């Protein structure tokens, strides 16, 4: 199963400098793909977590936390928009006024705080945590210098090491994973093809196809009484009252007269 790797505190503030793109090339045996400049890697091959962690650690000139997540967890996280219930992000002179983020935890925390959690206060928050799913903390922070300090408090609050990424980065990772999982050479694609060719699956598909063919007729029969009532109530009386020479007009002509 593919996996996603997140390095903590890399290329931030002039410390822990490295070249993620170069590291990805040096780990070509795992098919590693680098995203961005702060240590985000997508690994398509089925590699054990311990092997992958050791291989990446050897390429780093410093020690740092290495978070590794199964690809299915990232795809699950992005399958629905977790920010759909939040107010839309407004664009200011320097870009969005609020940033949507995901903090990736080293492991799932033992105890979870009450959510949503607003820091420093509910009335004037700079950082808001809206959900915690598996290894992921989802939230928003305002584009102010003070908000950065509250991002660091997530680790203290949950008692677990964390590294933060923009929600756009997570969506980009998910798109890459989905393209791999649906590629003809992938195991998931092959298993899906075998399932599609199964007799039961074919039978279900035939039934759904037949139902789809009958659906338009069923909709027409369902609304036919309403159509008849509309004609009797709206169109026929207008034809009778407006037709002074007693020559019936077409219904569409009546509607055109109404518009005019």
Rough outline: extended
Could you say which structural class the secondary elements and strand pairing correspond to?
A: alpha+beta
User: Largest sheet, described in full?
Assistant: 5 strands, antiparallel
Radius of gyration (CA) equals 29 Å
Strand adjacency order, main sheet: 8-9-10-7-11
Q: Span between N and C termini?
A: 65 Å
Helix content: 40-55%
**Uncertain regions spanning at least 5 consecutive residues:** 244-260
Query: What count of domains describes the coordinates?
Result: 3
| Secondary-structure element string | EHEEHEHEEEEEEHHEHHHH
Blueprint (SSEs and pairs):
Layout: E1 3-7, H1 20-26, E2 33-35, E3 40-43, H2 49-59, E4 66-70, H3 71-78, E5 91-92, E6 95-96, E7 98-105, E8 117-119, E9 127-133, E10 136-142, H4 145-151, H5 153-158, E11 162-166, H6 167-181, H7 187-196, H8 199-242, H9 251-259
What's this, in brief?
With 260 residues, the protein is α+β, with helices and mostly antiparallel strands. Helix content is 45%, strand content 20%. It folds into three domains: 3-72, SP0830-like domains (Alpha-Beta Plaits); 78-187, no CATH class; 199-259, no CATH class.
Main attributes?
9 helices, four-stranded antiparallel sheet, disordered C terminus, Alpha-Beta Plaits, 3 domains, extended, 260 residues, alpha+beta, five-stranded antiparallel sheet
Describe this structure in words.
This protein is an alpha+beta fold and 260 residues long. It has three domains: 3-72, SP0830-like domains (Alpha-Beta Plaits, 2-Layer Sandwich); 78-187, no CATH class; 199-259, no CATH class. It is built from nine helices and eleven strands. The chain has helices at residues 20-26, 49-59, 71-78, 145-151, 153-158, 167-181, 187-196, 199-242, 251-259, and strands at residues 3-7, 33-35, 40-43, 66-70, 91-92, 95-96, 98-105, 117-119, 127-133, 136-142, 162-166. The strands form three sheets. It has a five-stranded antiparallel beta sheet with strand order 8-9-10-7-11. β5 (91-92) and β6 form a beta hairpin. The longest helix is centred in the last third of the chain and has 44 residues, at 199-242. The termini are far apart.
């Amino acid at each position: 199963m593919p996996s996603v790797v997140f390095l903590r505190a890399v290329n931030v503030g002039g410390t822990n400098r490295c070249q993620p793109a170069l590291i990805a090339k040096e780990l070509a045996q795992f098919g590693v793909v680098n995203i961005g400049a702060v240590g985000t890697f997508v690994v398509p091959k089925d590699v054990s977590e311990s092997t992958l962690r050791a291989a990446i650690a050897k390429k780093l000139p410093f020690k740092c936390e290495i978070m590794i997540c199964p690809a299915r967890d990232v795809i699950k996280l992005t399958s629905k928009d977790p920010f759909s219930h939040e107010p839309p992000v407004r664009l200011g002179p320097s870009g969005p006024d609020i940033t949507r983020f995901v903090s990736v935890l080293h492991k799932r925390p033992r105890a979870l705080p009450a959510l949503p959690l607003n820091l420093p206060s509910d009335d004037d928050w700079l950082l808001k945590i809206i959900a915690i799913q598996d290894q992921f903390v989802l939230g928003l922070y305002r584009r102010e210098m003070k908000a950065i300090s509250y991002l660091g408090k997530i680790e203290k609050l949950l008692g677990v090491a964390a590294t933060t990424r923009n929600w756009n980065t997570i969506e980009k990772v998910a798109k890459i994973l989905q393209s791999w999982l649906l590629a003809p050479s992938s195991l998931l694609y092959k298993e899906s093809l075998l399932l599609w060719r199964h007799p039961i699956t074919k039978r279900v598909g035939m039934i759904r196809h037949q139902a789809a063919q009958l659906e338009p007729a069923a909709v027409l029969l369902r609304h036919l009484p309403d159509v008849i009532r509309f004609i009797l109530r709206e169109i026929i009386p207008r034809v009778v009252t407006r037709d002074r020479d007693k020559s019936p007009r077409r219904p569409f002509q009546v509607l055109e007269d109404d518009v005019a």
